[in-house]
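FORM 12-B: Structure-to-Sequence Request
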């Protein structure tokens, strides 16, 4: 059966109870190294007050399951009705399979529910919504659940400037036949020449003149995120700053809309970015939680949607994501 209208029926989010403020001792080791352009990486990440973090004995999947339960309850859709589970857990305990399968188990979703991990940091949520929307329109399922979670506070090099912005969290939405937050259109941009400027990988460190790979208590390599001092900061200052407003304006122009018609959710790494995007797009509402939750990477988008779900007044919503690779995506909804 094909449905003419698909919408987001419910949303939920969960963040850890532990709060890390700007004066936390973990940030005392931040380096103030300048790159060849004279930029100190830490200075790019402004406007932070608090961010939430998971402790070593706590699990990201717990947040994802709680967020999903909230979304299902708000949508009035039982877990037994979900036929597709999209999203991503990062960093998952294993390279593969992704911990999205643990979410399937924790929610007791039916065995016939297809699990589809989308590995596209940080646009995982947007691409998952697009996949779910198209699957429902095609008649392949009736209800889909999207869940994204990030625990990057455990995978940071706390000598690097970007680490000051990172927080943990998880968000979820249910899509199905309905008239709430209806996906209308999307736009994307891929700048693959910037591949490698921002990465998550296992990195060797010098010790006593030899390279070694840091390991955790289970003797497994520990991945860490890196923004390279030259290419990474250049990406931040150019494509990262200029790309999202250009993409949003392209999408709005196509549908005869302006910034005053929309509520906006975006990547929230820095007040520097948010202020610039506000100036360029001039949205009616900017739905952000930078001071409360920091940069939750891929979880930022569903968390903020759930946080403001009942309070959006603009007729349209745009969610715009930036991501490593380098790529950007924007998705337009009608409220």
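FORM 12-B RESPONSE
SEQUENCE OUT:
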């Amino acid at each position: 059966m094909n449905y003419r209208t698909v919408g987001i029926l419910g949303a939920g989010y969960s963040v850890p109870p532990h709060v890390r403020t700007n004066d936390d001792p973990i940030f005392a080791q931040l380096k103030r190294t300048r790159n060849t352009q004279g930029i100190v990486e830490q200075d790019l990440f402004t406007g932070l007050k608090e961010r939430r973090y998971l402790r070593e004995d706590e699990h990201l999947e717990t947040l994802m399951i709680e967020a999903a339960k909230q979304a299902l309850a708000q949508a009035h859709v039982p877990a037994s009705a979900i036929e597709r589970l999209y999203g991503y857990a990062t960093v998952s305990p294993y390279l593969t399979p992704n911990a999205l399968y643990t979410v399937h188990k924790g929610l007791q979703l039916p065995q016939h529910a297809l699990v589809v991990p989308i590995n596209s940091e940080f646009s995982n949520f947007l691409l998952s919504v697009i996949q779910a929307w198209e699957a429902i329109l095609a008649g392949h399922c009736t209800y889909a659940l999207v869940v994204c979670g990030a625990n990057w506070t455990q995978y940071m090099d706390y000598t690097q400037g970007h680490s000051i912005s990172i927080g943990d969290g998880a968000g979820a939405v249910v899509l199905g036949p309905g008239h709430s937050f209806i996906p209308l259109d999307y736009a994307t941009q891929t700048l693959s020449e910037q591949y490698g400027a921002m990465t998550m990988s296992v990195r060797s460190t010098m010790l006593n003149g030899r390279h070694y790979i840091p390991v955790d208590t289970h003797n497994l390599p520990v991945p860490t995120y890196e923004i390279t001092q030259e290419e990474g900061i250049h990406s931040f200052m150019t494509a990262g700053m200029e790309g999202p407003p250009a993409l949003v304006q392209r999408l709005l122009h196509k549908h005869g809309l302006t910034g005053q018609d929309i509520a906006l959710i975006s990547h929230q790494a820095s007040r520097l970015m948010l202020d610039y995007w506000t100036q360029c797009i001039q949205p009616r509402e900017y739905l952000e939680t930078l001071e409360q939750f920091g940069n939750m990477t891929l979880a930022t988008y569903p968390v903020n949607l759930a946080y403001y779900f009942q309070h959006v007044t603009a007729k349209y919503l745009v969610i715009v994501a930036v991501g490593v690779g380098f790529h950007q995506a924007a998705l337009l909804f009608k409220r």
